[in-house]
Amino acid sequence: MNGGHCRVSGARSPVLASCFLQKMCSWMLSCCLALQHLAVQASLLCIFHLLLLPTLPEEPPHSQATSELLARSLFACGISTVLQTTLGSRLPLVHIPSFEYLVPAMVLSSHLSLGASIDRNGTAVASACRAPHCTVAGSWAAPLQEVSGAVLVSGLVQLVLGVSGVCGWAAQHCGPMVLAPSLSIIGLSAYKEAAFFCSTNWVVAVLLMLLTVTFSQHLGSCRLPFCAWPQAWRGSMEPSVPTLRTFSVLLPFVGVCILCAVLSNLHISWESLDLAMAQLSWANSTFYAPWVRIPYAGEWGWPLFTPRALAVGIAMAIGCSMNSVGCYVLCGRLLRAPWLPPDTCNRGLCTEGLGSLLAGLLGVPGGTAASIANACAVGLTQTGSRLSVQASALACVVLGMSPRLVGLLTRIPLAVHGGVLCITYAVAVGTGISYFQYADIDSGRNIFIVGFAMFMALLVPRWFGTALAHLATGWVPLDLLFHSLLMAPVFLTGSLSFLLENTVSGTLEERGLLFELGPRRAGVGDRHAHGERGKASQAYGLPPGLSRLLPHPCKAFPCCFLCPRSEEEEEKEDEEEGRRATEEGTTAPEEETHLLPKPGSGEPQPPRRTSEMVMAAWTPWSDPAE
Questions:
Q1: Residues 6+ apart with CB under 8 A from 625
Q2: For residue 26, which of 248, 219, 224, 229 has the smallest C-alpha distance?
Q3: Under a CB-based contact definition with an 8 Å cutoff, are residues 88 and 350 in contact?
Q4: Do the beta carbons of residue 356 and residue 154 sit within 8 Å?
């Protein structure tokens, strides 16, 4: 009998009964993993709106408008996630409004608030919301529509970047010396927000982090008995998953939230809110929000297209595109997946653009982008499943049609949000640092690129945040564009490291590119090369039904950058890259730029061997229900 398949005749066969229990447990596992993704996604969604809404002019929205805004954002993120896992990169990624949307949106809303404080006669801040059931406060509607217009512009720009193949081309030129500082800065860029939310109660935040670390690291191999099912053909009980590690984010999240709810019901003061945090806290009641309301475009008024919205939208698209490429690489690295093909990056960016278009039409102040936090949670729990991500996306769509249920998300303690940021974004920092092993980090060239890019990414936003005089070029949209880009650490790190990496001379071995080209240099026709292409096709390929429907149209523009290439084209490219690697793989002694000697010796450390730089074998992620 084939151990993994359950094809046995007989209605009362013990094998069929065992397979039924196994499938039931698999579906329950997928639902629990989907709930874990939803918890992290809800936390990041609340953080985005908590930081953005107070920057809008005049009074903040009341509870009903807040719940409906969260519901609309959750609805758009759910649809975008389905597109990403089905037609996009096919990685198990969840979509949220990322911090790369938050910074430009806050820059625009702060500019609008400044204008509103100057003009108080009511003409500049008149409401443009004419829907009969509009729940947006009068002076809050027009700024929200302008931010939504910027989100719509960013979606269009992302579509152009994906269809034109620019995203895939840039990803192919991002080696370890670009990925290492970029991923590290993506993780480090959230430290201010994490400390800000943790400051409401450090005990709660530390408790969440302590439980997560304990479950994922110290008790990672613990398997609880209730997650086992009988294997009839083996005559034993086979444990399904290491339970505590698999749910190392969900269990602490739920446990700490329950503890805070019990303390609140007992009237025990546990949350300390200063003036700044009190302005971020949600309204006290969400019971006036409707149970069911299907969002549709234009209900809160159509997005406003102004030169300011156009400039901020371009900044949003650039920052989010760089963040998304980093998230694809991060997720693939944590899952030990093959290197990302260009068409995968292009398709993923197109799906994010479609999600941002939908979000802008629904009046949401943030677009959809791949969630760094959810990708890090996948690495922390070591569980990657498309099925669980799609189940969480379906839950987002359903919750997005019920503002009353979404209002429950506002009850999550603020310290829990801070703990989630600390745990998840720390994984991004560690993953970025791990890429240094493939490059020669003792090289003076690499030391300068990493140090300069990361230092400037931390320095420039700090200077703009404390500068008394704002950037002034004489044209407000250009000021907003530069301000939005220069306030984003991801843009600064990615652009500086990409520019220096591809302009400063260095060998492939020094730049860490041999770990990608090593399998190809062994020979184009060998089994290993074909095996790598087969694994990449399994990981990132389009669904089989869609691939059969679109064999030839993919060769025509603009679809040529979105569909996988044929085997002949891949083999030809492998030959060219292998020949180039052979020609450039050696370095003259006078061209070496090593600065740091080996510990205990006065000689420069030699470059690493190729065998030391090859990544671990890829283990494909599997859906538990399959």
A1: 23, 26, 27, 30, 387
A2: 229
A3: yes
A4: yes
Beta bridge partners of 95: 370
Judge whether 387 and 626 are in contact, CB under 8 Å: yes
For residue 405, count other CB atoms closer than 10 A to its CB: 18
The encoded tokens of residue 341 equal: 């093909």
139/128 Cα distance (integer angstroms):
9
Backbone torsion region of residue 168, taken as left when φ is above 0, otherwise alpha when ψ lies between -120 and 50, otherwise beta? alpha
Task: Return the closest-CA partner of residue 38 out of 425, 401, 396, 418.
Answer: 396
Under a CB-based contact definition with an 8 Å cutoff, are residues 399 and 125 in contact?
A: no
Q: List the structure tokens of 461.
A: 């936003």
Q: Which amino acid is present at 475? A: W
Which of 100, 44, 73, 159 is closest to 320 using CA atoms?
100
Give 525-529's long-range contacts (Cβ < 8 A, gap of 24+).
Answer: 525/571, 529/574
Taking the mean position of all CA atoms in its chain, how far away is CA 604? Answer: 39
The CB density around residue 541, as the number of other CB atoms within 10 Å, is: 17
SS3 116: helix
| Separation CA 348–CA 357 (nearest Å) | 14
Element (H, E) at 167: helix 166-172
Taking only Cα atoms into account, the Rg of the chain, rounded to an integer number of angstroms, comes to: 25
For residue 200, count other CB atoms closer than 10 A to its CB. Answer: 22
What distance lies between CA 376 and its chain's CA centroid?
Answer: 8
CA distance 214 to 232: 34
Coil, strand or helix at 6: coil
Region for residue 363 given its phi and psi (left: phi exceeds 0; alpha: psi -120 to 50; beta: otherwise): left
* Rounded mean pLDDT for each run of 10 residues along the chain, 626 residues in total: 44 47 69 94 92 73 73 94 91 92 90 62 41 45 86 95 89 90 94 92 94 91 61 46 88 94 84 55 57 85 91 95 93 87 90 94 92 93 88 94 88 92 95 92 92 94 80 88 93 95 89 65 44 64 68 56 60 58 48 41 41 37 45
336: DSSP letter: T
Q: Which two tokens stand for residue 439?
A: 């490059």
Q: What share of the chain is helix, strand, coil (3-state, %, to 5)?
A: 65, 5, 35
**Rounded CA gap, 402 and 292, in Å?**
4
The helix or strand, by DSSP H or E, that contains position 513, with its residue range, turns out to be none
Name 27's Cβ contacts closer than 8 Å, sequence gap at least 6.
624, 625
φ/ψ of 12, rounded to 5, equals: -110, 25
Which H or E element spans position 378? helix 372-381
User: Are 68 and 293 a contacting pair, CB within 8 Å?
Assistant: yes
